[in-house]
Amino acid sequence: MATSASTPRNRRAGRRSPLASAALLLIGLLATGGAYAAITASSSADAASQTQVAQLAEDGQKLFAANCASCHGLQAQGTEDAPSLIGVGAAAVDFQVGTGRMPMAADGPQAEEKPVQFTEAQIAALATWVASLGPGPSIPEEQYLKGDDLPAGAELFRINCAMCHNVAGAGGALTQGKFAPSLMGVTPKHIYEAMITGPQNMPVFNDRNITPEDKANIISYLKFIENNPSPGGLDLGNLGPVSEGLFVWIFALGAIVGVTIWLTAKSN
């Protein structure tokens, strides 16, 4: 069969057009360049982040040397007057310093809450440096500071916390001059940090004891009772039967005795 005269003799079956080859080459170069740029940008961001953390830790070490080393030691190794901070994590520093408990104003059975002595930036620097000394609990993420199951949070609080802090979170007395503070007005972050670090006489509730989600539920329960007044009227300090019994003895029985004396005097 004769070949058509209109078909070029040098045309081969399946041969790629030069334009198509150039386009494929251009696409490959663009893809390679984009991947390289992404990796380079990521590496640069990581390097910048590491530099920022290193600078923050350096600032924290200087603050620690000036304000905390006299008790805890220059390397936070602890002394006769204060425990080691190696391995306590950023959460412990953020709680203790962020609530004003540290630095302590004076020796006592336990560190009490007082006005905060440092700015948020300084607290972050101190926490970063202490966290660099050894692994420990980190500052909680925002997603774990609010739960959506109030009944579960209330039950967990009654089981694990109410024996010291009172079922309404009003606090209570312990032994040897110590006490469980009121939880009203405490920020969600500090409540979470207290649960994972166990300050003062409080036990540590790690994630195997109480999951992060359940810790968030406990926080939400505490915020609920903080923002909702007592439905029964006067809460009498939320101290339960002690305050209620005292109220009855002083006011109710006192009123009865007073009326009785008045009636007796009238009858005479």
From TrEMBL:
Transmembrane feature ranges: 246-265
Subcellular location: Cell membrane
Post-translational note: Binds 2 heme c groups covalently per subunit.
GO MF annotations in UniProt: heme binding; iron ion binding; quinol-cytochrome-c reductase activity
GO cellular component, as recorded: plasma membrane
Gene3D superfamilies in the record: Cytochrome c-like domain
Coiled-coil stretches noted in the UniProt entry, renumbered to this chain: none
Domain of life: Bacteria
Main location (coarse class): membrane
Electron transport among keywords: yes
Binding-site positions, heme c 1: 68, 71-72
Enzyme class: translocase
Residues in Cytochrome c domain copies: 55-134, 148-226
Catalyses which reaction(s): a quinol + 2 Fe(III)-[cytochrome c](out) = a quinone + 2 Fe(II)-[cytochrome c](out) + 2 H(+)(out)
Subunit field text: The cytochrome bc1 complex is composed of a cytochrome b (QcrB), the Rieske iron-sulfur protein (QcrA) and a diheme cytochrome c (QcrC) subunit.
Protein name: Cytochrome bc1 complex cytochrome c subunit
Source organism (scientific name): Protaetiibacter larvae
